[in-house]
Amino acid sequence: MLTITFEDQGRQPLYQQLYSRIKEEIEAGRLAAGARLPSKRKMADHLKISLTTVENAYAQLSLEGYVASREKRAYYVRPVEKMTISPVAPEPPRARVPRVPARRYLFDLSTSRVSLKGFPFSIWTKLMRESLRDESASLLEPVPPQGDLALRREIVNYLRQFRSMRVTAEQVVVGAGTEYLLGLLTELLPGAVFALENPNYHKPARIFQSRRVKFAAISMDQEGLSLAGLTKTQASVALVTPSHHFPLGTVMSVGRRRQLLQWAAARPGRYLIEDDYDSEYRFALKPVPPLHSLGSGQQVIYLNTFTRTLAPSLRIAYMVLPPGLSELYERKLAFYACPVSEFEQCALRKFIEGGYYERHLNRLRNLYRARRDVLMQRLAPLAGAFSLAGQAAGLHLLLTSRQGWPEEKMIRLAAQNEVRVYGLSSYYLGRAAASTVIIGYAGLEEAELGQAAARLVAAWGGG
Amino acid sequence: MLTITFEDQGRQPLYQQLYSRIKEEIEAGRLAAGARLPSKRKMADHLKISLTTVENAYAQLSLEGYVASREKRAYYVRPVEKMTISPVAPEPPRARVPRVPARRYLFDLSTSRVSLKGFPFSIWTKLMRESLRDESASLLEPVPPQGDLALRREIVNYLRQFRSMRVTAEQVVVGAGTEYLLGLLTELLPGAVFALENPNYHKPARIFQSRRVKFAAISMDQEGLSLAGLTKTQASVALVTPSHHFPLGTVMSVGRRRQLLQWAAARPGRYLIEDDYDSEYRFALKPVPPLHSLGSGQQVIYLNTFTRTLAPSLRIAYMVLPPGLSELYERKLAFYACPVSEFEQCALRKFIEGGYYERHLNRLRNLYRARRDVLMQRLAPLAGAFSLAGQAAGLHLLLTSRQGWPEEKMIRLAAQNEVRVYGLSSYYLGRAAASTVIIGYAGLEEAELGQAAARLVAAWGGG
Q1: Which ranges constitute the DSSP H helices of A49-202?
Q2: Contacts of B96 in chain A (CB under 8 A)
Q3: How far apart are CA B219 and CA B216, in angstroms?
Q4: Which residue of A36, B99, B371, B415 is surrounded by the most CB atoms within 10 Å?
Q5: B170: nearest CA in chain A?
Q6: Do A211 and B187 touch (CB under 8 A)?
Q7: CA–CA separation, A333 vs A145, rounded Å?
Q8: Up-side HSE of residue B307: CA atoms within 13 Å toward CB?
């Protein structure tokens, strides 16, 4: 029979020590497959331990498949595979090369940043506390797959009031960011070929590639997505940004909107995805009504996000499906749990409901308009050599060299003055040459923007 | 050679008809193991169909393990264990019936509910307030795609302490629920054929269907996922639940764990996805070490979630990638923004860091153990007619009729007493008959469970 020295000072309970000891014997082959373990009683007597201890050890061995019991009482050793791979835990993988940026910048005019001043921390904290206090039971219930119903109703009200859209809460699907929702759409519309505006922000193309979904990049003209380009492809679903194209800033003409709606209505299974991203930020003109409100509402999938108006790290976006697709969604995709925390859906609902969201947007528009104005004013000395675009909406400007400087030159000169700007060509799929840089201003305060602009004037003044 | 009458009016493509016909022959034993199929060319000539049609049919048979090809061209019938399921089963189209429950229940013993008492509201509120107050700047910064680094470090500590795993924060990816992470894995491993345990909870199969990813459902035996079943398929990635199978409660034996690790190590590109779901809830015995800690760590993708231990509506899960896949992730998928709110990642990090999570788990274990005990005690009068399983872990029991009552009968009689229980067969892909019902006890309090159990005894007492 086994001899076991129990470690008194050991932190392991006795039954675990016994379990480990027998396991070792089995793994070393000293207790061969088929061998019968001593009865629990005998083992307990032999080792001067309680019967319960032996029972627990045997149960653990049995649970892990080292032994099996037959005829109720007797335990036999089971055949255990010999390991060909080392069971010893490997060294943790070496740290990767630290990603030291090649260059330090004083000012980064990235378009992906937002104002740190903008987020309404105190109100959000209050609403979060209220949600946790008042709605504790419902917070723990499973959330409907499309998202919290009360939040969806608030979104419907908001869209009616500010975007002239008449939709129902059943059509709304809340998701963890636009990219999540785009992914869902590729599953909702299997076999569809997607058309993308070119240039574009990088995500949609990468999502389609990663999901092995076919897509075509369509060039832009002055009115928006090129219809001639679109009809040349097999695309059945076009992803467009009619309110404000990123990064060109183009607002889609009404003529083009109508043409696209006609294109979509011409064949079953055709849809337009209207990404209304950034539509909240219009400074010069009144908001353009969305594509969605122009047509019958049967062909347009409307997408928007709270990422740009609240915080990038709060992952809440939504889409509005046409009624036909909404039924399809319920049949095909409602098995997916809503990926957004119910706690935050509840806080956001209170935020919109209480009128905080509207006030917040007004404050942000003023904040960003002031930033844009400082930037434009301080860039004025460049007006002779560069043309400016994109100032009416969104949170970035485009600056194009009138003499056709390649963008690399502009980026390099700016970098020498410790300011980071971004080339337009990087937003194109495929090769493109450009003389345009993009300047995002949402992430810096007015004083910083003034300094950054002064450095750009110094860098490019000779242009 | 086979004679096949193709149905012209049939909705099925020709290759599927051919595939089904050959499959029938194999399952009926008319095409015996070892028999050689006619060459593709001969089959095509014989049936007057295209070579491609035959190729597609053979490929499908091969994928599902009915035939194997040797010496490049010839296909042989493989020994088929009786298949009760057809992989890639099409989803039965659900009618959009009005969602009025046909029947009202006093007690719903669903496995998807958790305790409303369990969630630590006051601590969570405090930590959320602290996060919003102290970390306001970092909350607004873009989050690393894999999730908040400090949270990932806490997860690494937790895994080392409680699951004997040695991993680094670089290997951890935080996502909005297990289903989100499974979706990412289908993109990380394009072309992989996934193997699922059958029975299983429904989500993985639906995700794979929705993403049009190939998968095979593999039967379970006493030790876990059937290795024989697995090796008959073309599967390269097996999703398993070694700690505690849902719904059967099986704990995978060490022998089977080793066999699976060897299977995975035998060919590059093979992986095991270890879903460690529910491993926190063990009442009788010490936790079984994860598959991950048994092997070299190169073949196992570890998955776990906070959904079952915190709240289903807090969508936070994570996976640990082996170093090779972690680098691949960074190259291929790091463009996806982390879908989990940084606010909640921050609160969760503080929750683990402050020791609250460990205490919370201990409290939950006690709470659920008490609920289980009440339920078992009150179900004792049924012991003669029903056998009980699954009491050692997880949050549900399995009750099987010793006389082979069909589960429908048990469900119906329970419903007449206003208690809702769930049939085991609904967790199988494909047809299955069972005499077992599943009783989840996490969502009801002790007094309610006592009443529900008394009603079950009344309902089934004659059994």
Answers
A1: 51-63, 121-134, 136-140, 149-163, 178-188
A2: 327, 330-331
A3: 10
A4: B371
A5: A95
A6: yes
A7: 9
A8: 31
Cis status of the peptide bond prior to A199, with omega within 30 of 0: yes
Q: What pLDDT is attached to residue B97?
A: 40
CB distance from B50 to chain A under 8 Å?
no
Give pLDDT, residue B3. 66
B233-256: pLDDT as tens digits:
999 999 999 988 989 988 899 999
Average pLDDT over residues B342-368: 93
ipTM for the whole complex = 0.81
Q: Sort B28 into a burial class: Cβ within 10 Å, 0-12 / 13-18 / 19+.
A: exposed
Q: Find the range with the poorest average confidence among A66-70, B224-228, B446-450.
A: A66-70
Helices (H), A121-202: 121-134, 136-140, 149-163, 178-188
d(C-alpha B334, C-alpha B336), whole Å: 5
A419-429 per-position pLDDT tens digit: 999 999 989 98
Q: How far is A88 from chain B (nearest CA, A)?
A: 7
Mean pLDDT of A100-106: 66
**Cα angle, residue B172 at apex, residues A81 and B259 outer, rounded to 5°:** 10
SS3 content of chain B, % helix, strand, coil (to 5): 40, 15, 45
Contact of B336 with chain A, judged by CB distance below 8 Å, is answered with yes
Q: What is the pLDDT of residue A236?
A: 97
Residue in the structure block whose two tokens are 């939950």: B364
Decide if A284 touches B, using CB distance below 8 A: no
Contact status of A89 with chain B (Cβ, < 8 Å):
yes
CA distances (Å), B44 to each of B2, B76, B172, in order? 11, 17, 50
CA distance B458 to B413: 9
Which helix (H) or strand (E) covers residue B53, if one does?
helix B51-63
Give the pLDDT band (50/70/90) at residue A224. very high
Summarised one tens digit per residue, pLDDT across range A345-384 is 999 999 999 999 999 999 998 999 999 999 999 999 999 9
User: Whole-angstrom Cα distance, residue A18 to residue B286?
Assistant: 13
Q: Which residues of A touch B176 (CB under 8 A)?
A: 176, 180, 315, 339-340
Contacts 24+ apart (CB under 8 A), A346-349: A346/A131, A346/A135, A346/A138, A346/A139, A346/A148, A346/A150, A346/A151, A347/A124, A347/A127, A347/A128, A347/A131, A348/A151, A348/A306, A348/A310, A348/A316, A349/A148, A349/A150, A349/A151, A349/A154
Walk me through the domains of chain A, giving residue ranges and CATH numbers.
14-77 (1.10.10.10), 107-112+360-460 (3.90.1150.10), 144-340 (3.40.640.10)
A65 to B256: CB separation less than 8 angstroms, yes or no: yes
Please say whether the beta carbons of B392 and A55 come within 8 A: no
Mutate to test the interface with B, among A54, A81, A126, A186 (most CBs of B within 10 A): A81
Nearest to B123, CA basis, from A136, A121, A143: A136
How buried is B224 (Cβ within 10 angstroms: 0-12 exposed, 13-18 middle, 19+ buried)? buried
Distance of CA B264 to the CA centre of its chain: 19
Is residue B302 within 8 A of residue B319, CB to CB? The reply is yes
Query: CB contact, 8 Å: B258 with chain A?
Result: yes
Looking from the CA of B161 toward its CB, the CA atoms found within 13 Å total: 12
Whose CA is closest to A435, among A392, A387, A394? A387
